[in-house]
Design brief:
The chain has 255 residues and is α/β, with parallel strands linked by helices. The chain has two domains: 152 residues, 3-Layer(aba) Sandwich (Alpha/beta knot); 80 residues, Trp Operon Repressor, Chain A (Orthogonal Bundle). Helices cover 39% and strands 15% of the residues. It contains nine helices and nine strands. A five-stranded parallel beta sheet has the order 2-1-6-5-7. A two-stranded antiparallel ribbon has the order 3-4. It has a two-stranded antiparallel sheet with strand order 8-9. The protein is elongated and about 70 Å long. Bound molecules: ligand 9D3. Ligand 9D3 binds next to strand 5. Its EC number is 2.1.1.228. It comes from Noviluteimonas lactosilytica. Its main location: cytoplasm. This is tRNA (guanine-N(1)-)-methyltransferase.
Length: 255
């Protein structure tokens, strides 16, 4: 897929996408990332991209025209129709379901605001969707755009190797991941749960599933729809709860 980022700091987003899975997706031709700086479309020696808000108040608002021209230049760079997404605290919260939907588009244009935001008329005319990445205050849309780029890139066919795909699978089922351990078996910080050393793959799968269910119940009950769980999962969660409520679930790993 192709992603165009309209931003005063397009190289910031490009740097975030240069490493690991996303960098590899670009090398493999699964993702092409392009930056468009509204300052390059701002006229005059000052190249001004913002102005004071009508009605008064603090901060500055991004001007329509440099953003409009940057978006149109991005559109014209490829004949495929682009979905334009504005990253803003006023947007709907980004979820993995939304990521899957965005990842299926051949083209996205991600619009990043700075200052107080962009002129509302530009949003009404050019933007298809407004998205936020969560309820905290960032300094601009670039980190949010980088989050979108990362999340959609890894869903492109061929972006993940087999191991990464398998790991992805467990999270896509809406549960938190189970704990992970590697060598050494004995360490001053604790030991590895016996079951993982047993070689009994059915028992290991059962333990991991129980840990996933239990951690989701403890940490993210909002993700857990107990009615929707199967009989086996409910039994595992009950077993986890029984152990937890008996206080046998030592947090220091020495259980
Ligand atoms: C301090 C400025 N605020 C005054 C009420 C409003 C405000 C404007 C612009 C707050 C943050 C921003 C910049 N943030 C983003 O562009 C942004 C964002 C975010 O801050 N949190 C979560 N998701 C996103 S997506 C874009």
């Amino acid at each position: 897929m192709r992603v165009d980022v309209v931003s005063l700091f397009p190289e910031f987003v490009a740097q975030c996408a240069a490493f690991g899975v996303v960098g590899r997706a670009q090398e493999r031709g699964l993702l092409s990332l392009h930056g468009w700086n509204p300052r390059d479309y701002a006229p005059g020696n000052y190249r001004r991209v913002d102005d004071r808000p009508f009605g008064g108040g603090p901060g500055m608002v991004m001007l329509i025209d440099p953003l409009h021209d940057a978006i149109e230049a991005a559109r014209a760079a490829d004949p495929r129709e682009a979905k334009v997404v504005y990253l803003t605290p006023q947007g709907a919260r980004l979820t993995q379901a939304k990521v899957r939907e965005l990842a299926a588009h051949p083209r996205l244009i991600l619009l990043c605001g700075r200052y107080e935001g962009v002129d509302e008329r530009l949003i009404e005319a050019e933007v298809d969707e407004e998205l936020s990445i969560g309820d905290y205050v960032l300094s601009g849309g670039e980190l949010a755009a980088a989050v979108v780029v990362d999340a959609v890139a890894r869903l492109q066919e061929g972006a993940l190797n087999d191991a990464e795909s398998a790991a992805q699978d467990s999270f896509e089922h809406g549960l938190l991941d189970c704990p992970h351990y590697t060598r050494p078996v004995e360490h001053p910080l604790g030991h590895v749960p016996e079951v993982l050393l047993s070689g009994n793959h059915a028992e290991i799968a059962r333990w991991r599933r129980m840990e996933s269910l239990g951690r989701t119940w403890l940490r993210r009950p909002d993700l857990l729809d107990e009615q929707a769980l199967g009989k086996a999962d409910r039994a595992l969660l009950d077993a986890f709860r029984a152990r937890y409520l008996q206080g046998l679930d030592e947090p220091d790993g020495d259980a």
